[in-house]
């Protein structure tokens, strides 16, 4: 926990703005939310305590069936505030902004308190942000900041409405040290510039900053039915691109050309973007799990590993297929079939209630039994959502218990340095009974 000597305000009274009805501290001449003039003394404004929204808790801290999307977001965020001892949350990560507010622009500051749910953006995003938040029914109000109504003046005014200690939760996994320092400095400046009447109190108090950790990411672990369908559609676009590239692959084609054709096909079939840089690795390059496509040409007898994904309505896909240019020899077939067995048996075992590392062990033991254990160095899989690598992960360390609605990839591989490598990857949803595999592409060895 870091504490800065800036701005803990205790017990300040607030009044409602006569125009927009938002809270503002007594003595403030202009509303930070709508910019309207109000009497400085607040004589004509009705004083309010602003009733706190009350929510019930479940034993997990998260809720999955509520009356409205807005209530769901408020309940999850309120649970995090209580759990972490905060009364204010700054949301800055673009994936968190998208999930919690619906805003797709990526640049903004969402502020959540027991009294307020605000999304603060500049004029480039105001209209889009309003459309996005309304479409998502997130309950966040969009506030535009500008030279006359600076961002941190708005934040300072929200802080003035908090009674007692001000304990801010921030996204420590994405907010840089420089950004953190800038925010704390600008908040302090805003108080001194716009609220000098509280300067003495500011000098005698402090504001606490607390890392929120992975709490916001955990909110995204269990996908709704709507999210699952978007993820399924994204993976179907990948299936279509795989069928397209199979028609084009031939000796003499470069890895860069393979990657370009895959990416063109993904866009052609409806992708709005790539979920990560496409991997096309042939021959000796396929022994590197995350090889960068090069000018190397495909040759007869090469393994070609293609790992690619797209974004559809904000949600990512991820799949890998390895094919042979020409004919595979005995050992190539043995390695390929070992990877395929490891993948199919791991997929068959996946279900709600199983521990992540136990799924990884199933695939790892199969590969080790065939003498290739040292050549499988990465984890078996990871979750996918708005971001390509979410939690939990299927690896040797993750002790998370799988739950229905989690998304996981299953992608074992064998990589023999200086020779070649094989990886096969599907993506799907964990269910109570097993694994809903979104990937429809063939997995039997394909020789071209």
Shape: elongated
Oligomer class: single chain
Strand-residue fraction?
15-25%
CATH architecture classification name of the largest domain: 3-Layer(aba) Sandwich
What do the pLDDT scores average to? 87
According to CATH, what is the topology of the largest domain? Creatine Amidinohydrolase, Chain A, domain 1
**Count, helices:** 11
Using the coordinates above, name the CATH class of the largest domain: Alpha Beta
Major β-sheet annotation: 7 strands, mixed
Q: How far is the N terminus from the C terminus?
A: 58 Å
How many domains is the backbone divided into? 2
Low-confidence regions: 1-14, 23-28, 40-67
Structural class: alpha+beta
Q: How would you summarize this macromolecular structure in one to three sentences?
A:
This protein is of the alpha+beta class and 448 residues long. It contains 11 helices and 23 strands.
Please write out the topology:
Blueprint: E1 2-4, E2 14-16, E3 23-25, E4 47-48, H1 69-84, E5 88-91, H2 94-101, E6 109-112, E7 117-121, H3 126-136, E8 141-144, H4 151-160, E9 167-170, H5 177-194, H6 199-203, E10 207-211, H7 215-219, H8 225-246, H9 255-268, E11 273-274, E12 279-282, E13 302-308, E14 310-312, E15 315-316, E16 319-325, H10 330-349, H11 356-369, E17 381-383, E18 390-394, E19 407-410, E20 413-416, E21 420-423, E22 426-430, E23 435-437
Parallel strand pairs: 5-9, 7-8, 9-10
Antiparallel strand pairs: 1-10, 2-3, 2-4, 5-6, 6-7, 11-14, 12-13, 13-16, 14-15, 17-18, 19-22, 20-21, 22-23
Helix pairs in contact: 4-5, 8-9, 10-11
